[in-house]
Structure formats: structure tokens, C-alpha cells
Design goal:
This protein has 6 helices and 19 strands. Helix 1 runs antiparallel to helix 2, helix 1 packs across helix 3 and helix 5 packs antiparallel against helix 6. It binds 2-acetamido-2-deoxy-beta-D-glucopyranose (3 copies).
Length: 309
């Protein structure tokens, strides 16, 4: 009878390790089989004898991947811990981070806690940084010490607006700005577009369109389409997701040869830097007399700048 129980235990452990409570089930099975008085006691003792003292649950993960800025949870599942301590140690510099519930590092992003009913001592790393990546050791204070290693991988999402950082288009054309976010485990809750600091909204019918697509599991694309561009559409366009840095491009809507556009474009920013000073100066020259002197001075300054090149 005793032999049967041990066999049962070994078998179920071999085939049932993924089951959370296989250990508990074994225990119950044995207690049921040997419920005849003192025999039960012997059987349970023999079972625990397979693992004297603490042991790591073999199903515990050894590889955790988390996104930059989020919280990471490193589990360490220790059975039959008894009154032993569980410490978390950072491999990189052998720094002891925690011992049981106590944090031993001057960085309050690190904290360990016991998840009730799971025998799991979890190390929490808040606001994960790139330098947190690496190996962590969960150590049990047995003699000799027992260790379980977990590798923390930190994924840094990338954001870019496709194409050049300066975009030149003619008035009346359609512009499409594609903001691509890759390697993001967590989809941004929203992606906003800004034009010179003002939120771009889809309010103008047919003038602007914004689309967001989750293209692959770790890729999100937000597309801003501006139809029939006007010179006022020139400026800094920023793509700003909820959980990441932003990306920007400068859009220059050029007047081209279109006469109407030429006139309207008088007070618009010219895309070519050296000219813009000059045209600003000339533009001002048409203003009220007191400003005339300033305008001329500006123009001369711009001219001298040009000549100095
Ligand atoms: C751990 O996970 C990362 C990301 O999912 C993967 O690239 C890496 O190969 C894994 N390492 C091991 C040892 O499984
Ligand atoms: C842990 O428990 C064992 C017996 O269960 C006892 O002998 C030992 O002194 C305890 N150790 C500590 C540090 O309390
Ligand atoms: C565009 O605006 C963003 C956000 O205000 C700013 O961070 C960025 O430097 C600007 N880019 C240019 C080229 O002006």
C-alpha cells in the first residue's frame, strides 16, 4: 500500500507537473488511500520525504519579457518553504534587492511580495528601464543555498514617421503621414496628432483623415491624410501615442506656380531658410511707416547674411 502511494506520486508528478495543485492532489489521494488510522500518517510522511525541505516548482518561468516603462513581475514559486527566507538578487552587480518582504536597495521600484495561496514570491520591478534587463536570482536560505534564475527582457518600442523629416508638397496635393510604432507589446490607448502644438481633429469634412491600425501583434500605424493642402497646413506635425515618446516631421506646402496660391502664400513660411528672412523683411516693408525702418533693416540684415555665404 505504501509503495503504491509513492508510485502514484512519482507518476503524477512526472505527468502532471503543469498542474498547479498536483502536489496537493497527491497528498489528498494518499490521505484517501490510507485513511485507515495511523497508516495515513506514515504515507504522508513518506510522500514529503521525496522532497525534504523547500524546492522550486519546476513549472516556474525562466524568461519574462516586458515593455519599457511598464511593471515587470518575476515569479519564484517555492514549495515547502517552511521558515526559510527568499531573497532576490540582481546578477549584474550581485546586489541583494529583497529578503522576504524587505527591500535592500535604495530604489523603491523593487519590491517583493508573497502571492497568497500560490507559494510564489514575486519580485515587482516598477517602471522598467532598459538597464533593468538581465538575470535575476531567487535564492532560498537553505544550506546549501538553492537558486532559481529568471531573465528579464526589456522591449523598447520604436516610433517614427515614415519618410524624410522635412516634407515638401505643392498646394492642393494630398499628403499622407504614416506614424509607425513597432516592438510595442502594449497597444497605445490612443495616438494623437498635433499641428504646431494644436491637436489635429477629424472635424473638417474631407480635409483631414486619421486612421489607426494594429498591423501586426507589435506594430501600430496611425495615418494622417490631409487632402487639398493649403499653405496654412505647413508646420510641425507630431505623432504622440499615449504610452511612448512622440515623433515629428515638418511639412512645407509650397505655392508652386499657382497664381492664387502665390498671393495667399505671402505671409506663409517659406521652406527655404535663407529666403524666408528676405521675404519676411520685404513683406513687412509694405506695412505702416514706423515699421518700415525695421523692415528695411531686417531686409538688409538678411541680404548681408546671404552675401556673406
Ligand atoms: C526569452 O524571451 C525573448 C522574448 O520573447 C526571446 O527573444 C528569447 O529567445 C527568450 N529566451 C529564452 C532563453 O527562451
Ligand atoms: C526553522 O524551523 C526549524 C524546525 O521546523 C527549526 O529547527 C529552526 O530553528 C527554525 N529556524 C529559524 C531560523 O527559525
Ligand atoms: C515639433 O514639435 C515637437 C513637439 O512640440 C517638438 O518636440 C519638435 O522638436 C518639433 N520639431 C521641429 C523640427 O520643430
Amino acid at each position: 500500500m505504501t509503495v503504491c502511494c509513492v508510485l502514484l506520486t512519482v507518476l503524477s508528478f512526472k505527468f502532471c507537473t503543469p498542474c498547479e495543485h498536483s502536489y496537493l492532489l497527491d497528498l489528498l489521494a494518499c490521505v484517501v488511500v490510507f485513511s485507515g488510522g495511523e497508516a495515513a500518517h506514515t504515507a504522508v510522511k513518506r510522500f514529503t520525504g521525496l522532497y525534504t525541505g523547500p524546492y522550486f516548482d519546476p513549472t516556474t518561468t525562466t524568461n519574462i519579457t516586458t515593455q519599457l516603462g511598464t511593471h515587470a513581475y518575476l515569479p519564484c514559486k517555492v514549495k515547502q518553504l517552511g521558515n526559510k527566507s527568499v531573497s532576490w538578487i540582481r546578477k549584474r552587480d550581485a546586489h541583494i534587492l529583497t529578503v522576504d518582504r524587505f527591500t535592500f536597495i535604495a530604489d523603491d521600484r523593487f519590491q517583493a511580495f508573497l502571492v497568497e495561496n500560490t507559494d510564489t514570491w514575486t519580485l515587482q520591478v516598477k517602471y522598467v528601464q532598459a538597464r533593468d534587463a538581465g538575470e535575476y536570482e531567487c535564492q532560498v536560505s537553505t544550506e546549501p543555498k538553492m537558486s532559481h534564475f529568471i531573465t528579464l527582457n526589456v522591449v523598447v518600442p520604436k516610433i517614427e514617421i515614415l519618410g524624410e523629416s522635412d516634407i515638401f508638397v505643392k498646394t492642393g496635393s494630398t499628403v499622407q503621414l504614416k506614424c509607425v510604432i513597432t516592438q510595442s507589446l502594449e497597444e497605445p490607448a490612443y495616438i494623437f496628432w498635433y499641428h504646431d502644438g494644436n491637436r489635429v481633429l477629424k472635424y473638417e469634412e474631407n480635409a483631414i483623415d486619421i486612421k489607426i491600425e494594429r498591423e501586426a501583434t507589435q506594430t501600430t500605424v496611425s495615418t494622417l491624410v490631409i487632402y487639398n493642402t493649403r499653405s496654412e497646413d505647413s508646420g510641425n506635425y507630431t505623432c504622440s501615442p499615449s504610452n511612448l515618446d512622440s515623433a515629428s516631421v515638418l511639412l512645407h506646402v509650397l505655392n508652386g506656380e499657382h497664381p492664387a496660391a502665390m498671393q495667399r502664400g505671402k505671409n506663409s513660411a517659406s521652406p527655404i531658410p535663407a529666403w524666408s528672412h528676405l521675404s519676411m523683411g520685404l513683406g513687412l516693408a509694405a506695412c505702416t511707416p514706423p515699421r518700415f525702418a525695421i523692415a528695411v533693416a531686417l531686409s538688409l540684415a538678411a541680404l548681408s547674411e546671404l552675401l556673406a555665404c
